[in-house]
Write the structure tokens for this entry.
Amino acid sequence: MNILILGDVVGPSGVKAVKERLPKIIEEKKVDFVIVNGENAADSGRGITKKIFEDFLKAGADVITTGNHVWDHKDAEAIASKDIKFLRPSNLPKDSPGKGEGVYKKKGKNFIVLNLMGNVFMKKCDDVFTEAKKFIEKFELGNAKANFIIVDMHGEITSEKMAMGHLFDGKATMVVGTHTHVPTSDYRIMEKGTAYQTDIGMCGDYNSVIGMNKENSVKKFLKEKDFEKNFPSEGAGTLSGLIIECDQNTGLAKKVNRLILGGSLTQ
Ligand code: FE2
């Protein structure tokens, strides 16, 4: 089985890259299950619309994960309440709409996706490690209920994401970080068989400041008066993510490959 996860899609350039390239990648790389982090996909770079959510599913995504920007567009609460293919961080306050984990049946297997959000330099949410431990007690990787487990750990700092990777080592198929919009080079299979990458990067224009217009972002840091609210950069988008091949019986990773395609990032 091959699983692909794409990092945070940022604005129209990222959306275009996903819609144009994802169907071909699924076919060429024989991908069985696709997760896309879509929390920055709206035109403003904040949140996601119903239309974009549906477009991602049409392009081949099985699940859309999110993070701190989950509720930034008004469509999100309705999508989260109605559609299990939309996940918000599992450790949001308990009265939040929607779900943070889902079980998805495909090709006779159960794929479980868990969306978490870090606690350091992020919006206030419940303790992410307590939440992860509860999940681990509930699902055992490799049995019929949980053939594959994918964890999207949306967080700012590398140490928190690495610790989460080790907590899940041998207990999840893959643990990947999202949110920083910059792909790291530490993708690998850990000691007990879980694929890991601290951040899988963004899908969007890298000739930017984390997907946002670079001139405007620099103005903001220089504290010049005429900067506008951040808005997405519109150059060619790169697709960035991780593809893993996993063992049908154990649910663990066998091979891990980074995906960097198109735009200004070196392949
Ligand atoms: Fe984020």
Observations:
- Residues 11-28 form the longest helix (18 residues).
